[in-house]
Amino acid sequence: MIVSHNELVAVTNKAFLGMRRTCGEADIIANMVADLQMVGLNGVRHFNNATKFLTAEEDCPVDITMSNSGNLVVDLHGCSVACHLPVIVDYAIEKMVEKKALTITLKKCHNRWLAYSELVKLAAKGIACKAHWENGTSPKRTLYVLNRGCVAPELFLSDKIDLNSGYLNDMTIELSVRDFNVMALSEGYSIHIDSAELSSTQENAWRHGIDVDDVDWENLKKTATAILVENSEQSLKGAGELV
């Protein structure tokens, strides 16, 4: 089905607000979902898949340490990238002062697809970025490459990963003031979705509305409604106990 940008953002916003989390900004996360959906990369489905984690995971700050090489290592304690990445990226940019490159290693995280919009923002600021991860539940290697000024990434996928690599819940983001060699990085990846295709899909979404799978849309609306109803019932129960 076709939905508007405002409609998608509003429903996702309600779904996240209903979780009553301390970490994560509902409006930012809603736009993360919309941005990913608009380029045809199933933002709503990724958010729906993450809901069971978002409602159960520990709502806590991340731990950031500096490696001997001056790079950042961030332990998310099993939490969603969507809840923490905007702050992590801001912190990383501050650390890039007088540096030409910086690597961020996100440990024990999930919902990594939703990093998309934060990486695009970096490219618009004149910072090239490369992000890659391995997905253990549906074995696939994923690589984003966004050179400076790009409005969409070069996306590479491969089913060939080492399930014993020990990095299935991690994500690595490399930032640089210089562009990456896309051709060299693409070796070993069997699928390439180029930036022009993603940009074309996004432009079409702005003109004609955002295409969302019917089942994904209904699941998102149910999540928003169910959580809001549950919270309302809890509030009424608490009020009754005070009487």
Structure description:
By secondary structure, the protein is α+β, with helices and mostly antiparallel strands. The protein has a single domain, classed as Ribosomal Protein S8, Chain: A, domain 1 (2-Layer Sandwich). It has helices at 5-17, 26-38, 43-54, 81-95, 116-124, 182-185, 195-208, 214-242; strands at 2-3, 63-66, 72-80, 101-110, 128-135, 140-146, 154-158, 171-176, 191-193, 210-211. It starts with a strand and ends with a helix. Residues 235-243 have low confidence and may be disordered. InterPro entries: DUF3726. It comes from Aliivibrio sifiae.
Task: Give the topology, please.
Blueprint (H helix, E strand, L loop, with lengths): L1 E2 L1 H13 L8 H13 L4 H12 L8 E4 L5 E9 H15 L5 E10 L5 H9 L3 E8 L4 E7 L7 E5 L12 E6 L5 H4 L5 E3 L1 H14 L1 E2 L2 H29 L1
Parallel strand pairs: 3-4
Antiparallel strand pairs: 1-10, 2-3, 4-8, 5-6, 5-8, 6-7, 7-9
Helix pairs in contact: 1-2, 1-8, 2-3, 3-8
Outline of this structure?
This protein has 243 residues and is α+β, with helices and mostly antiparallel strands. Helix content is 45%, strand content 23%.
